[in-house]
Amino acid sequence: MGYFEDTNAIGSFHAMKKNILTSSSGGNSGPNSSTIENYAPWLLTVAASTIDRNFVAQTQLGDGQDYKGLAINTVGLNGVMYPLIYGGDAPNASAGVSPSNSSTCAFGTLDGELVKGKVVLCSEVRSGLGPQHAGAVGAIMQTDDGPYGQAHRFWLPPDLAAPGVNILAAWTPSSGEDYAIISGTSMACPHASGAAAYVKSFNPTWSPAAIKSALITTGNILRTETLNFRSFTAHVMSPTKNVDAEFAYGAGQLNPLAAVKPGLVYDVDEKDYIKMLCAEGYNTTNLRAVTGDSSACTSATNATVLGLNYPSVSLLVKHGIPFSNSFQRTVTNVGKSNSIYKATISAPASIKISVESDILSFEALLEKKSFLVKIEGVVETSILSASLIWSDGVYNVRSPIVVYTQKE
């Protein structure tokens, strides 16, 4: 779907014109690839990550085995053992419910006679009202959901990850509960929105793109074997098991404190986005559907999509065929005057990344410097991950770079 058909993309473009950054959920359709939502470059697209704490409860089976899981129990079972039944074995047949539907324990899918006085094992995480309404004394739920996706050839969505798994939050009173533990990018998005507002409070003159850049380039790297963000219901990403993990969490875990003072920012304005849309082949009608004004693609808007001054890079190349791409980036000094930044490249041996110039000297705040990045090589796997880091010894400004292939 083009941006001109996407109400979120259109609305957020108009917000950007008013100097407002829109934070958006990346969606929960993973873990398969190409499932992300809300990937317009003027949006902040957020993935859901786990947190460094859990609400733990323990379940003991009749054979003495103990299992830990997520729960907030204010009332225990007083040591009484109850029968366990799988939701798929207790369909509400009188209502025409199939075992596959009753396995989810959705409201009205369970047979009350079969689950009454028992603990129900459910295949999805829900509110628990279904088993409760059917007369069960408890429910055990399991899930393996997670946002995960590839969406654009030239930048990396999602932009970053924020806490979104097992989040304790206020709940609608009509459900009978004041609070609930909820998971998904709809929980991560508010965290990123709050972080953006926090950064804005320290830097009130910054553009939406500058705030977004600060959040992206200061994210905590998650490409490690040992992660501190663990959960009983979420995937733990690792470079050996998940070679395309950046398409799940973007630049890494949100770090609001570091984002307040990122050192350098990659800034973008409305004209730059219009040039990008023109480079993508938008005609005047489609372009104006996004911008809502009299914008048009002319020789003055001639550019490339890869030339958008974005803080991350995603390149789609052909498998096993040599490639070479060059593009320019411009950074604005928001750290210290009289500072010198040096470029450091981290990349696998099969691709070469060079930067010209690899040293940027700034004399004043808000001074801008441009540099050229060249990426070349041959990709024999599905994805290769790299990064460009500008550092002055105090600030480390990291841009993730992903080069990937797709099956024909």
UniProtKB/TrEMBL annotation:
Similarity section: Belongs to the peptidase S8 family.
Residues covered by the Peptidase S8/S53 domain: 9-229
Name of the featured protein: Cucumisin
Pfam families in UniProt: fn3_6, Peptidase_S8
Sequence ranges assigned to domain Subtilisin-like protease fibronectin type-III in this UniProt record: 308-403
Signal sequence, start to end: none
BP terms from Gene Ontology: proteolysis
GO MF annotations in UniProt: serine-type endopeptidase activity
CDD domains documented for this protein: PA_subtilisin_like (cd02120)
Entry keyword set: Hydrolase, Protease, Serine protease, Signal
